[in-house]
Amino acid sequence: MIAKGIENADIIIESCKLTLADLNSTNPEWKEVLQSVIEIMGDMKTKFFLKTNLAIPITNACRKDVTELQSLVEKHDLSGFPEVLTRFQGNMEKMLKQAKMDGVIIT
Amino acid sequence: MGTVLVTGGAGSLGKRVAQRLCKEGYTVRVFDLPKMDFTSLEKGKGFEILRGDITRSADVQQAVESVSAVIHLAALLPPASERRRELTFAVNVEGTTRVAEALKEANPGAPLVYSSSVSTYGDTTGAKSLITVAHPQQALDIYAESKIATERSLRESYPNAVILRISGISVPSVQSPPEVWPFMAEQRIEFVHRDDVVTALCNAVRVEEAKGHVFNIAGGATWRTKGKTYVRDYYGLLGVPIEEARFQERPGWCDWYDTSESQRILNYESTSYQAYLDQLRAEIEKMMQV
Global pTM? Predict the structure, then answer.
């Protein structure tokens, strides 16, 4: 069974790709953000954190954000895009902070 | 109360030791490499920060000046210790001898507590009973080899040193597991809570009866389990199936230890394995609140 965190990561990556494809020539900074999320989530998929229950709430939040972004683009209504993108970035940062787990101490 | 020197005092364990001693009223001289982060200690009262290197005599002489006791934690640990044997011995063996010699000159008879390791026993999987401090030592890696050599050196240069052979330390926070757990699934393991190790180190400074003795420091009966059970408990709290875990195929150094004497004299085993799991569970619940 695939861990929920990894399942969310796949959905986030896919959603970012679809959003990027539909953004066309709009703000290049938005595109950069989405591109970097794709890279980060790709790296994260190999981390232990995403296999744990710890990853579920925060990846759920990121998934919700990116789905909202995708929906805005599909509706050609970008007025709320910057606000959701900022929230998405904030949640991604939270996820990276949580995933930073120190090594086990063995003497 | 005098000044206690804690070498390696800016490391994760060293900081806890320094903070505990400070809380108990000691002045603590925290000695560590300049590259270490001293921030949390610099803010507090009762700490003397000293940046230096135990491979340098002048630094060590300055470190031991007017101290009433030393807790010597500074060492190269695995995996760094396995890269260059020469450097590991320079830091772990010669560095410790340098600290002992300098202390002998500055304040002969002052308590010197040395953090050794149960890894010095090597592969003990054939043992039927608890591993005592009389068990033969046989290194499986450079780190253990350096610790055995240091113990031998200390017995000659500083016979009153208290040698603590510390088991694997469990920290009640979520940490990435190693790619391969350093023991077999069915191997006996007995780790110890970080706070109890801090207690053992601090008590070893002031308990007269401890002088000149070697002790095993491990969690006690409630911590005696098998490798697979320990990992299953940890993974279970995180919702990760045990099948994700990889264990060593050859025995690691872990085992069950006789800590009756260390507990009698140092009185440090106060956190049960279940209490550790409860702390970990609380930490995870806190992290789950986004």
Answer: 0.89
